Amino acid sequence: MSRLGSLIVRWETFLLLVLVATFMYGSRFSEYFLTSSNISIAIAGAVPAAIVALGMTLVIVTGEIDVSVGSNVGLCAASLAVSIEQGLPIEAAMVVAVVVGTLAGLFNGLIVAYAGLPSLVVTLGTLALFRGTALIILKERGVHSFPEWYQNLGFETIGATPVPWCSLIFVLLFIGFAVFLHATLWGRALFAIGNNRDAARFSGIDVRRAILGVFVTSGVMCSVASIVLTAYLASARADTAVGLELPVITAVVLGGVSIFGGSGTILGVLLALLVLAFVQNALGLAGVTPEAQQIVTGAVLIVTLIVFSVSGWVRDKASTLRRLRSQPSYGEAKARR
Predict the structure, then answer these.
(1) What is the pLDDT along the chain (337 residues), one digit of tens a residue?
(2) How far apart are CA 32 and CA 17, in angstroms?
(3) Could you tell me the residue ranges of all domains in the chain?
(4) pTM to 2 decimals?
(5) φ, ψ dihedrals at 157, nearest 5°
(6) CA quadruple 170, 173, 175, 179: dihedral positive or negative?
């Protein structure tokens, strides 16, 4: 296939076309869709989930999953809030949040990598554990006493542009993750683990350490997202980021990362994040309720899984047919003898 042909069939190209179509139809739904203020709100609101999705990408590439990310973000936000209540400056409180998120990711990783338990079951358990701990820390109260400069980090834009300051955090992290995943031996090792864990182990890759590393990274990204989300909301509660795992996993899978591991690109995840952010924004401007938007997000996840399953089946069948056609028939083989 030519380079142009391979570009056309790439999933990322399809997502780019969907993003363009979203902007076209969104501008028809509402005259406010393409305004700088609305674009800024859509981007700022999507940044926390986008940051968590970076860590989730590494986890899913290895064939694992982390459904505790929303609760981890809530736990980090609660830790940050309580630290401020205890008199710590905001900078020290942010460090506390990062430490808490890192330890939560380490806890997940140790159980999955070294106890050998399924990541889905483990993180379902820690989803409840982290959220319950956040509720114990903050109970039902909210904390709102944050410095003005910190609150501006969540939604203030850079000059006259519609680009919020918090998006710069994501851009820097995105570049780092892209280089790590696609241009380093460690990134290739994660793909190898996702493709065939036993083969990766026999080739000298420390599989358990790599899995531990991706869960710790996921925890760190949850802590960073909690800092950004708390600034965006100008509030921290124990129920912060409830349900965040659904849009995060949807974005990663929609971005072309196989839910079974071993394939995908960070660029596809970025495009999927933008598609989901502006689709939800357009639906909001069209008067669609948040509950209905959740239904749309869930439907997108299911449809994406079906599409990838069908495409994988078609690829396997096509590969089998090519192999059979390349083999000589019984008569040809006998004639050659």
Answers:
(1) 444 444 445 788 888 988 998 899 888 888 888 898 899 999 999 999 999 999 999 999 999 999 999 999 999 999 999 999 998 999 999 999 999 999 999 999 999 999 999 999 999 999 999 999 999 998 888 888 888 889 888 888 888 788 899 999 999 999 999 999 999 999 999 999 999 999 999 999 999 999 999 999 999 999 999 999 999 998 898 899 998 999 999 999 999 898 888 888 999 999 999 999 998 898 888 888 888 888 887 888 788 778 767 766 666 666 666 666 666 655 555 555 5
(2) 22
(3) 38-265, 289-337
(4) 0.89
(5) -95, 160
(6) negative
